[in-house]
Write a structure and sequence with these properties.
Layout: H1 2-16, E1 20-27, E2 38-41, E3 46-51, E4 54-59, E5 64-69, E6 75-81, E7 86-91, E8 96-101, E9 107-112, E10 117-123, E11 128-133, E12 138-143, E13 149-154, E14 159-164, E15 169-174, E16 179-184, E17 189-195, E18 205-208, E19 213-217, E20 222-227, E21 232-238, E22 243-249, E23 254-259, E24 263-270, E25 273-281, E26 290-292, E27 297-302, E28 328-334
Antiparallel strand pairs: 1-28, 2-3, 3-4, 4-5, 6-7, 7-8, 8-9, 10-11, 11-12, 12-13, 14-15, 15-16, 16-17, 18-19, 19-20, 20-21, 22-23, 23-24, 24-25, 26-27, 27-28
Length: 335
Amino acid sequence: MRTLFFCILAAALTASAKDYKVTGKIDIGGPATFWDYLTTDSDAHRIYVSNGTRVVVVDTAAGKVIGEIPDTPGVHGIALAQGLGKGFISCGRANKVVVFDLKTLKATSEVATGKNPDAISYEPVSGRVFTFNGGSKDSTAFDAKTGKLAGTIPMGGKPEFAQIDGKGKLYVNNEDTSEILEVDAKALTVSRKWSLAPCEEPSGLAIDTKHARLFSVCGNKLMAISDIKAGKLLTTLPIGEGADGVAFDPGTGTAFSSNGEGTMSVVKEVKGKYEVVQTVTTKRGARTVTVDPATHRVYTPTAAFGPAPAATAQNQHPRPPMLADTFHLLVVAEE
């Protein structure tokens, strides 16, 4: 009788288990140009998507574009300060941040930064915005209310994506040194750092604040998982090629690595050990990612591509060109 009970229970659990898969897409269109990070505003049902010289605003409830912020050359990232009604856009080609109004989507001011600002974060404890500048290998910090420069922090290498812990610290992937840097937002100093080896060229970064974990995606097809309190690497897991973004859903305890090869690696902690529990087929070029913690839907941008041009002596591996009006978001969810 007991054996029969456990067999029925196991069958019920198996039947109720759901897999992640692509469940839809949101068309954006526009010129054939690059994209980078995207940011979710769950309360407003919005996603802000970088796209060349503009930021596209998507209504996730309606599944359509509702506006854009133009004139953001070389846009990389978007940070939001909902309590201030402000957004901040890092413009890599212009060495500046464009500040915009969250209600009107109109630009209101600009702030000069270091060279090629890439990732950008709003840190609420200090009330400061931080850009992480790949060209000058430093971070620019300024007051979110006034735009006044607070200082510049040397990074000792090329900083990539950053995350905040909600307690006054930021964590940054250093691509050149394969390290995590801990930044004190008030003191404007690097307070700690630790190695991610064997991870090489870490880019995307996600955080689990409840359990003090960081998830870095690396150029050599690894995800590196760190313990923030101990300041050390815990483990690495195999992921797909071309990952540039990773997102963490605190509601489900799931991390998602978006791999440019056309897959998404789904990572969870199982019996005290992190595992890749699923590999989702997405589309080629889908290499950055965000998650909406309210709906648990995952969004990753990509486009359609034409045939790659012939190789030359100067470029042995030319990339296939993106086709105009094909830019879109893929929606990934449990089903």
